[in-house]
Design goal:
The complex is a heterodimer of chains A (117) and B (109). By secondary structure, chain A is mainly beta. Chain A is built from no helices and eleven strands. The radius of gyration of chain B is 13 Å and the shape is globular. In chain B, the strands form two sheets. In chain B, strands 2, 4, 5, 9, 10 and 11 form a six-stranded mixed sheet that branches. A five-stranded antiparallel sheet of chain B has the order 1-3-8-7-6, with no helix packed on it. Chain B starts with a strand and ends with a strand. The chains are: A mainly beta (117), B mainly beta (109).
């Protein structure tokens, strides 16, 4: 409904597994974002891509690896995760990062609920 | 240090009882302030973008205002379907976005 889809919606993985989260936007946007949302904490910006180029990596552990093959798709590759990585992972997109507030308004997907055992 | 604080943390209103949610911020060079609504188990839904002091935006029972230090989300005559968590986010200079922890609103019929 928002034009941003995420799969899977729910994921349970062990600490030794490797999995990937997928995000696709149908809004014609050029910037995409990964956020982590944990209970009682504000959304934490993890990665930012603008025109397929990574512009921000907010000190995210290397067990999280993003990939942006084109402006419509964003992946988050997961490996050797810890239980504290359990959270809701949200993808968002915006027109771009051109400096205008309207262009930088983000639209979110429904999220992937991740549980690490 | 860039910071966003939302208050109150939780708010219970009777249907029709108007109130306001607050988002105060300290950022270097505000480029935009955003309000979102989030329902349980869902992603945030965009409501408003504000980018200059004095600006106001309205949508149905919601009205957002912005000053140099804070933003208010006014809810007029709320209905039970307005129950949700309301999030505020700011965009300072640099490619960062900072969110507050949200206000959980419950509207009782």
């Amino acid at each position: 409904e928002t034009g941003v889809t995420q799969t899977p919606r729910h994921l349970v993985m062990g600490m030794t597994n490797k999995k990937s989260l997928k995000c696709e936007q149908h809004l014609g946007h050029n910037a995409m974002y990964w956020y982590k949302q944990s209970a009682k904490k504000p959304l934490e910006l993890m990665f930012v891509y603008n025109f397929k180029e990574q512009t921000e990596n907010n000190s995210v552990p290397s067990r999280f690896s993003p990939e942006c093959p084109n402006s419509s798709h964003l992946f988050l590759h997961l490996h050797t995760l810890q239980p504290e990585d359990s959270a809701l992972y949200l993808c968002a997109s915006s027109q771009d990062l051109s400096g205008g507030a309207l262009q930088e308004t983000q639209y979110f997907g429904p999220g992937t609920r991740l549980l690490v055992l | 240090e860039d910071q966003v604080t939302q208050s109150p943390e939780a708010l219970r209103l009777q249907e029709g009882e108007s109130s306001s949610l607050n988002c105060s911020y300290t950022v270097s060079g505000l480029r935009g302030l955003f309000w979102y609504r989030q329902d349980p188990g869902k992603g945030p839904e965009f409501l408003f973008t504000l980018y200059s002091a004095g600006e106001e935006k309205e949508k149905e029972r919601l009205k957002a205002t912005l000053t140099k230090k804070e933003s208010f989300l006014h809810i007029t005559a709320p209905k039970p379907e307005d129950s949700a968590t309301y999030l505020c986010a700011v965009r300072p200079a640099g490619n960062q976005f900072y969110f507050g922890t949200g206000t959980s609103l419950t509207v009782i019929p």
